[in-house]
Amino acid sequence: MSKRIVILTGAGISAESGLGTFRDKDGLWTRYDLRDVATPEGFAKNPKFVLEFYAARRGNSANANPNSAHHALAKLEAEYSGEILVVTQNIDNLHERAGSQSLLHMHGIMNGDLCNNCGHRQQTTHTLTIETLCPACTTKGSMRPDVVWFGEMPYHMERIEEALAACDVFVSIGTSGEVYPAAGFVAMAREIGAHTVELNLEPSSGDHMFAEKHYGPASEVVPAWVTGVLA
Ligand code: APR
Q1: Domain 1-18+66-107+154-231 part of CATH 3.40.50.1220
Q2: 106-151 tens-digit pLDDT
Q3: Of ligand 1's atoms, which has the minimum distance to the CA of residue 218?
């Protein structure tokens, strides 16, 4: 019987593509204080530093390629008879580049710009600086990356909650289960009796919430899990 599968991904799925995670031993938050670069207060205090931080992450991401875990999820979407929705916490574009289309970026995208003043959005074409003018409201220095910072509301929450309320299977891949609301999705899936799967390098904070668990590098455990679903 075809099932409705919601798949949450985190930084761990992009780790083998060369993009760092946040809370592993050499993770991003061990080198930066997230309050300085991932909060509205940090942007207000030092916008130049924040814009340079995301410009550097965009640079890293441009050199990265999807790995076999991203490709396996795209294959699942293309070949599975049921419904697949990938909800990613990641702001890189590796899922898209692997071919995933049923995809929501709940923490935004690093290749998007957003005006803090008027809400204008655009594809990033030039590195933002504090001199950048918003093309819509012409405010100087209000353009920021279109990413969701701590204290801000994640995107697409209504669609995500609807999908979780109707899913048969919830899979969590490459996330530590430390940040809400994403960390609460497994409880919502269990609530409606969905089967829950954790695919991660090591047990996450919420590992006890999952009925099925496979640990190892995403490039190995995700393709193996997809092969099982498609069998
Ligand atoms: N394969 C699978 N999992 C991996 C791999 C790998 N090769 N490498 C690391 N992991 C796992 C780690 O074990 C950890 O559980 O990926 C997870 C990464 O956790 P975090 O660094 O906390 O990243 P994430 O869960 O995505 O963070 C959530 O926090 O800072 C915010 O907005 C940011 O979206 C991010 C959110």
Answers
A1: yes
A2: 999 999 999 999 999 999 999 999 999 999 999 999 999 999 999 9
A3: 1
Q: Which atom of ligand 1 is nearest to the CA of 148?
A: 32
pLDDT band of 1, cuts 50, 70, 90: confident
- Tell me, using a 6 A CB cutoff, whether residue 204 lines ligand 1: yes
Residue 173's closest CA among 135, 111, 221? 221
Residue 126 known to be catalytic: no
Task: Please answer whether residues 70 and 95 qualify as being in contact, where contact means their C-beta atoms are separated by less than 8 angstroms.
Answer: yes
**In the chain, where does DSSP find H-type helix?**
12-15, 28-31, 34-37, 40-45, 47-62, 68-79, 94-98, 157-165, 185-191, 218-230
Q: Which of 70, 105, 107, 195 is catalytic?
A: 107
The reply to whether ligand 1 has any atom less than 6 angstroms from the CB of 105 is no
CA distance 135 to 84: 37
CATH of 20-63+111-147, one of 3.40.50.300, 1.20.1050.10, 3.30.1600.10, 2.60.40.790: 3.30.1600.10
**Model pLDDT for residues 50-95, shown as the tens digit of each residue:** 999 999 999 999 899 999 999 999 999 999 999 999 999 999 999 9
Domain ranges of the chain: 1-18+66-107+154-231, 20-63+111-147
pTM more than 0.85: yes
**132 CA from centroid of ligand 1 (Å):** 32
